[in-house]
Amino acid sequence: xxxxxxxxxxxxxxxxxxxxxxxxxxxxxxxxxxxxxxxxxxxxxxxxxxxxxxxxxxxxxxxxxxxxxxxxxxxxxxxxxxxxxxxxxxxxxxxxxxxxxxxxxxxxxxxxxxxxxxxxxxxxxxxxxxxxxxxxxxxxxxxxxxxxxxxxxxxxxxxxxxxxxxxxxxxxxxxxxxxxxxxxxxxxxxxxxxxxxxxxxxxxxxxxxxxxxxxxxxxxxxxxxxxxxxxxxxxxxxxxxxxxx
Length: 245
Fold this sequence. Notes:
4-stranded mixed β-sheet, 7 helices
């Protein structure tokens, strides 16, 4: 079976003398590993295509007998060269990439994750001064689209809208927000800053081109980081905090 697919290169490695393996993300197949035999020497079939964070159109053959993917050739869509030449930007992209490489992405979730990552790299490339808060926002957006998004619109106990909750509590295990009165009945709820919760809700209503310019106050950043890491590490069993300091 042969197909053509646009992919983002998440990871690469060499084996034998000139062969390369790649971990790829596509909108139709999710994350998969493919082999580029002779890839490290090829100037015609894979010219400039096999680097991490490249966006590439690959012609792929699936070998049913051996159960693996083989890359036949590739055409570079975008190499994000400006991003890769800037230490700050490449550091933020590396944070996003490290988180992506920790995840198991099912095919049904792949289209949205692929879209978010592609748009995020473009935002880091095109924005003249991306804020270092960006990787945390990216992390939140990906987790939300994987189906782990918490309900932060109102109190899960009485239905009081978030905008009217003065001292909210956040239940990490259930992904729910509670007002001061209702949280007394939820032993696991932790203190949550209302501004941080509103920012998390705003992420679901916007995209990477908006996130890249956000510059929230340091206190809001720290509160977001604390809530997000606690929530993500509980539900995905990850320990990969994002450093934006």
